[in-house]
Amino acid sequence: MVQISSESSYVYNFKSSSTWLSGDLSRESRGEEPCFHGKNAIDDINGFKEDHPSTLGNSDGMLFFAFPYGQGSQPMAILSLIFYFLNICLFVLFHVSTLARFVLEPEAFIRQLKHPSYSLFFSCYPMGATTILNVSINVIYAYYGIGGRSFVYLIWALWWINIAVSALCFWGCTYLMITRHSHSLPAMTAAWILPVVTFVVASSTGAIIAEAVRGFSAHSAFITVTVSAFLLTLGLLLASMMLTVYILRLVVYGFPPGLSVLSVFLPLGVSAQASYSISLIGAEFQSLIPLVSSQSPFFSLNSSPDTILIFCTTASFILWSWAVLWISYAVLGLLHVLRKTKIQFKLTAWGLVFPNGVFANLTIHLADVFNAPFFRVVGAIYSVLTFLLWCYISYNSLLMVPSLFKTTAHPTIPEKDEAIDPASKSTPNLPSSQNLPRSRIESVDSAEVPGYEDTVIG
């Protein structure tokens, strides 16, 4: 949302060529509960900078094991294990630091839920966990043969718990966006899709786990891959709707200013992860359908397994092409902003690791599917770049660990009944967004709105 920090703490949206309406007023006019986003709740950004939930999306270990040169070798497996346990440590560290933050300052959790941007990054929790589950199956169990049946079913149970958390993010965050948060098109970022990506990520993990479960129960594996296909469908459909609106925002208002331009990389995550997921699901259906007796006329066809595989593989390539499109937009947007300003490191940069990592992993996977040297070379190069990005973010994040436990005094956020009545305040006399050049709109979004860049990924 776009905000002006003033004595009256207005919240406004770009509405028309001559009128700037308050976000609260627009909700009350529709008979909804007022949504207060005043100076205390939003512009007090300092309490969010050190405990941003995007720090949980930090896993990157599978790239070593899947690296096309030396793939599956002992050195690569060892490197995967090193980063596997390192990522677990980072995952636990940021969990502990975040929980400590909430214990020392209980209002921080409610404040983050009310925040229209920071609340979306809670979706990084289940996404960070799924990558750990992936390595547990592919490396710990499949490669080293550690764990056996009990280990596989433990990971399977954790996956179902992860689905429950993902569902809470998927429906809960979108519900808060609709009923509690105030948003505007100029201030929109790709972070809107974060709650939606949780289902897409969980679907790919489900397909990986289904392959391991198949060795003990074909029926359980079939249920797992079917649920994964359901999750993928929901996540991909809603993400496509949101990204359609996001393209409109980019065309009308240009790339997000300053640090928020990094959010343009986020659509890469949903497109690449969906591509990877649908490819795995198709391969797993091909293996499972002959093993599961069914009276369905569809599954009883001899051609059904191969048909599903061909369809899913084709869809995977189409989604990979979609991911390449978003990479080009993200790089162009980053270069555009770097020409104007310097980007400073913040913990929200963890949100860059996951989307770039899944694209590298997807490209390597397609190299195996198509046996194509092009995908193999591109995947290797992108994996190295993602690893360098991970190293840079990890180093700078560790330097900020002491600040995670520092608390700051925050003014009390007014309750709903105590919120300032927007009807009693006169709207600020601000220029029309439709009559401003794009450069002027960007300056309104960033330079004239304190804390705007801190409310989005950066």
Q: What would a concise description of this structure say?
A:
By secondary structure, the chain is mainly α. The chain has helices at 23-29, 39-43, 46-49, 62-66, 74-104, 107-114, 124-143, 148-179, 194-213, 218-253, 266-288, 304-338, 353-370, 373-399, 438-445; strands at 2-3, 11-14, 20-22.
Features:
single chain, 458 residues, mainly alpha, Glycosyltransferase, 15 helices, 3 strands, globular, disordered C terminus, transmembrane helix, cell membrane, sulfite transmembrane transporter activity
Could you characterize what this model shows?
The protein has 458 residues and is mostly helical. It has one domain: Voltage-dependent anion channel (Glycosyltransferase, Alpha/alpha barrel), CATH 1.50.10. It has 15 helices and 3 strands. The protein has helices at 23-29, 39-43, 46-49, 62-66, 74-104, 107-114, 124-143, 148-179, 194-213, 218-253, 266-288, 304-338, 353-370, 373-399, 438-445, and strands spanning 2-3, 11-14, 20-22. β2 and β3 (20-22) form a beta hairpin. α7 (124-143) packs antiparallel against α8, α9 (194-213) runs antiparallel to α10 (218-253) and α10 runs antiparallel to α11 (266-288). The two termini are 16 Å apart. Residues 1-59 and 407-458 have low confidence and may be disordered. It comes from Leucocoprinus birnbaumii. It is a multi-pass membrane protein.
